[in-house]
Design brief:
It is a single chain. The longest helix has 23 residues, at 3-25. The chain is of the alpha/beta class. Helix 1 packs parallel to helix 6 (162-174) and helix 6 packs across helix 7. It is 45% helix and 15% strand. The protein has helices at residues 3-25, 52-69, 85-98, 122-125, 142-148, 162-174, 179-196, 207-214, and strands at 41-47, 72-77, 101-107, 128-133, 152-155, 217-220. Strands 2-1-3-4-5-6 form a six-stranded mixed β-sheet, with helices on both faces.
């Protein structure tokens, strides 16, 4: 098994371990009803081409949140020969026309999705709000997303266990916590699970090394929550 496949397998195991722990140890992540600002926001998510089990698990976790806490949401899953660029751009432009705030979730390995937005008029791009990217070593993209109009960008610096962070991040975000308030607890929860998963980490990886590569950072205006749509 290649190192890349081994890392992917470990991340998948950690992701579903964390999801199970969340269901067992944390209070239910649904609120009785979404906020009134729900009608002003939309979201788009992309899952890259990975094994079917990972595609299924990511969608099963993500889609209920997006459907409940956004007025409109679209979820794309790449296949081997289809990157869905045209469909994604069409839906993104529709969202930017109709909603005050649009959030993007890139649930993919190292990527360059920011290049897809170059032809969208700058005035429309001002409605971009949050961009979250699980891609390994994609923290550097923050300056590009902010230049495109996003208010905040969250990414990871190294070859990371970012799907684990995402489990805790998405839950806290949709429950209404501010980005600068949820980042620390979500990183800490990831760190705890990495230590629990220490026996399955392939050498020479250690929980602390993976944590430092995986720790999420926020660029831009990181003091807003899901309810804020005007900037």
């Amino acid at each position: 098994m290649s190192r890349l496949k081994a890392c992917g397998l470990v991340c998948a195991l950690i992701f579903f371990t964390a999801l199970g722990l969340q269901l067992l140890l944390e209070r239910c992540f649904w609120r009785p009803a979404p906020s009134p600002s729900r009608k002003l926001r939309a979201a788009l998510a992309i899952r890259d081409h990975v094994i079917p089990f990972q595609k299924w698990g990511t969608r099963q976790f993500t889609w209920p949140y997006l459907k409940k806490y956004y007025d409109q949401a679209w979820y794309f899953t790449h296949t081997r020969n289809n990157k869905d660029k045209a469909a994604f751009i069409a839906r993104l432009e529709e969202a930017l026309d109709r909603y005050e705030a649009v959030d993007l979730f890139f649930l993919a390995h190292g990527n360059h999705y920011y290049q897809w937005l170059s032809h969208i008029p700058r005035q429309k791009r001002k409605r971009l709000r949050l961009v979250y990217n699980t891609g390994c070593k994609d923290l550097w993209q923050g300056r590009y997303w902010l230049a495109l109009g996003a208010k905040a960008y969250i990414g990871h610096p190294g070859v990371s266990a970012s799907p684990l962070f995402y489990v805790y991040f998405l839950r806290r975000w949709t429950l209404g916590q501010r980005l600068n308030e949820l980042l620390g607890p979500s990183n800490a929860a990831m760190r705890r699970v990495l230590h629990l998963a220490s026996p399955v980490l392939p050498a020479p990886l250690t929980p602390e090394k993976v944590y430092l590569d995986s720790k999420a950072f926020c660029y831009g205006t990181c003091s807003f929550d899901i309810h804020r749509t005007a900037f």
